[in-house]
Design brief:
Blueprint lengths: L1 H44 L1 E6 L2 E6 L3 H21 L5 H12 L4 H12 L2 H7 L3 E12 L5 E12 L3 E15 L10 E18 L1
Antiparallel strand pairs: 1-2, 3-4, 4-5, 5-6
Helix pairs in contact: 2-3
Length: 205
């Protein structure tokens, strides 16, 4: 009889241990399932679907801080392209400069006014000169705010008889502003100045 009781007691302990293990496994599986569901929900929120020409295209949402260097470089590049890419047409010049001035503060407006007063744009028009700029590189310091940048570019003045190549170096700072159609990156260039704008070569046609 005592042997049977000991066997019953031992079996009860085994069943009790097994029950605890089963309950623990169920809790772990439940916690894992809840965690995965929250993770899937977060991943789903970061997926955006855009309908274009009847096709669903998938885009991904990201924190802005991850894209700041890319956005700053594109903002600076767009500004320099609009400010310095000019044709001998007063309407084209005005349209490009207007787009550029939306992306910068009064320092760019001052530079434009100085060039206009010196007859720079009038000379482009009277001489049928086209001006083009290619941004070579942009150095950034995003560890300070406003963000500092230095832009290195190549400028070309295209005449009917020759092409003059210039080295262009500018610097300035950027601060955050609201995004808009005229300023899609949401940055404003401040304290912008030209450090260098010198002739490198002249190629006759």
């Amino acid at each position: 009889m005592f042997t049977q009781l000991r066997n019953i007691d031992s079996a009860f302990k085994h069943i009790k241990l097994f029950s605890y293990l089963l309950i623990g496994a169920c809790v772990l599986i439940s916690c894992f399932a809840v965690w995965k569901s929250y993770q899937s929900s977060d991943n789903y929120k970061n997926h955006i679907y855009i309908l274009a020409n009847g096709k669903a295209l998938e885009a991904y949402a990201a924190d802005r801080k991850d894209n700041i260097p890319v956005e700053i470089r594109d903002h600076v590049k767009m500004f320099h392209h609009d400010f310095f890419t000019l044709d001998p047409d007063d309407k084209v010049i005005e349209a490009n400069i207007t787009k550029a001035l939306y992306m910068a503060d009064g320092s760019a407006k001052t530079a434009y006014s100085n060039l206009k007063e010196s007859g720079y744009y009038a000379n482009l028009i009277s001489g049928n000169i086209s001006q083009q700029v290619d941004v070579d590189s942009i150095a950034l310091d995003i560890n300070q705010y406003p963000y500092y940048f230095k832009c290195f570019a190549t400028e070309r003045l295209i005449r009917s008889t020759s092409t003059v190549t210039r080295s262009l170096v500018t610097q300035g700072f950027l601060r955050n502003v609201s995004r808009s159609d005229n300023n899609p990156h949401g940055f404003l260039i401040e304290k912008w100045e030209t450090l260098e704008n010198k002739d490198l070569s002249t190629q006759s046609k």
